[in-house]
């Protein structure tokens, strides 16, 4: 989401997310529907149960945009609610979510974390990238999450940043957030990084040029007890681009200049020792 108001939701990108357990091990295989109650005759949009050879058309529970719209899964019901700007606060009352064991799946994932890596393109204006639980939906002047009603007290935003950069790596420059780790001492809260991004051009001794960026950072944490405005829990990166560009250029020092510098250093030391003899 950038300063122009443009939001990038559900876009194609090169971001990958892995589920990990509380010990950091990747959870690679998990069967869907474990523990979910089985309902042989799901509820139809018109209110009755699915009969033999009847085409299934599930209800969207008031969020339908058209008269013939169907919601045949829990995700489709949630998506219909998001399009309306509504929050799905009681998924246990939704027939599709009950059949798929949505609430049970969320509860079984308690204590898990995730590993996120990849890259994406953003506009060259100020904006923010954030990691927050649930999926976003929007109301006027507000951004909400459709999982906040389930277990808001148990969110933990402890995190470690292995690497964060804006563009290609520049030799000799270490990004200030690489390897940074923060462990959350209290339940819930918002961790914010304010980044000042400086466009940078690096040219090596052979003339190869890298157009990238470097940045400085300021950190801030706001706990749920201090937050009277109820901000979204998560990790937020607010970035702003500097109007100044930095240029690094490598070049050889001529051998005669090198000898001149050596002579100047030796001459300066000789003068110093002559004034202050042992």
TrEMBL record:
Pfam families: COPIIcoated_ERV. One of its GO terms (cellular component) is COPII-coated ER to Golgi transport vesicle. Residues 60-270 form the Endoplasmic reticulum vesicle transporter C-terminal domain. InterPro entries: Erv, Erv_C. This is Endoplasmic reticulum vesicle transporter C-terminal domain-containing protein. It comes from Handroanthus impetiginosus.
């Amino acid at each position: 989401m950038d300063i122009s108001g443009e939001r990038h939701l559900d876009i194609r990108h090169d971001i990958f997310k892995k589920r990990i357990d509380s010990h950091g091990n990747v959870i690679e295989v998990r069967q869907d529907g474990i523990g979910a109650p089985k309902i042989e005759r799901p509820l139809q949009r018109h209110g009755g149960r699915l009969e033999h050879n009847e085409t299934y058309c599930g209800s969207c529970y008031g969020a339908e945009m058209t008269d013939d719209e169907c919601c045949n899964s829990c995700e489709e019901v949630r998506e219909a609610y998001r399009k309306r700007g509504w929050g799905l606060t009681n998924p246990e009352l939704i027939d599709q979510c009950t059949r798929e064991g949505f609430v049970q799946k969320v509860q079984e994932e308690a204590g898990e974390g995730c590993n996120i890596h990849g890259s994406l393109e953003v506009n060259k204006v100020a904006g923010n990238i954030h990691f927050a639980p649930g999926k976003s939906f929007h109301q006027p002047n507000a951004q909400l999450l459709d999982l906040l009603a389930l277990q808001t007290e148990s969110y933990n935003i402890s995190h470690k940043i292995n690497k964060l950069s804006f563009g290609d790596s520049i030799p000799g420059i270490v990004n200030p957030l690489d390897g940074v780790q923060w462990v959350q001492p209290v339940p819930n809260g918002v961790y914010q990084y304010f980044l000042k991004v400086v466009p940078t051009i690096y040219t090596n001794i052979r003339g190869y040029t890298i157009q990238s960026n470097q940045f400085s950072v300021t950190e801030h944490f706001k706990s749920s007890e201090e937050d009277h405005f109820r901000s979204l829990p998560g990790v937020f990166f607010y970035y702003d681009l500097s109007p100044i560009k930095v240029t690094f250029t490598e070049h050889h020092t001529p051998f005669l200049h090198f000898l001149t510098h050596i002579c100047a250093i030796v001459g300066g030391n000789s003068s110093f020792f002559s004034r202050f003899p042992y």
